[in-house]
Amino acid sequence: MLDALTVAVSAAALVLAAWCGYAAFRDQPTKDWHFIGMAVVSLLVLAQLVVGIVQLSRGEKPEQGAVIFVSYLVGALTAVPAAGFLSLAERSRWGSVTVSAGAVVLAVLEVRLHDIWGG
């Protein structure tokens, strides 16, 4: 895996978590700007998925197995969009909390992906 991409995804996820956490602290729901931030983070994760699949297709193998690695990649791809859809259903501060929690989950998944690859 590309360590720089993993760090970028983790950092972006934590920034999104802090931003949405601040919105929840101010008793605000998710707004359009938050969804743009979610899209940026999701694009970074999509790039990571593509890089991971390309590396697997070139014969590189994660230390803990390809199935677990791909499963975590797909889980990472769905973490923030799932939280975003849930925040649309809850148009209160709890929607912002949901996105913040989803972004923290993504950051944890990134650490685990790094471990699975052998970092």
- Counted by DSSP, the helix tally is 4
Which parts are unreliable, with pLDDT below 50 for 5 consecutive residues or more? none
How many distinct beta strands? Answer: 0
Order of helices and strands: HHHH
What is the general shape? elongated
Q: What distance separates the N and C termini?
A: 9 Å
State which percent range the strand residues make up: under 5%
Radius of gyration, in angstroms, nearest whole number = 15 Å
Mean pLDDT across every amino acid position? 94
Major β-sheet annotation: none
Structural class: mainly alpha
Which percent bin holds the helix content?
over 70%
Overview of this protein structure:
With about 120 residues, this protein is mostly helical. The chain contains four helices and no strands. The longest helix is centred in the middle third of the chain and has 26 residues, at about 30-55. The protein starts with a helix and ends with a helix.
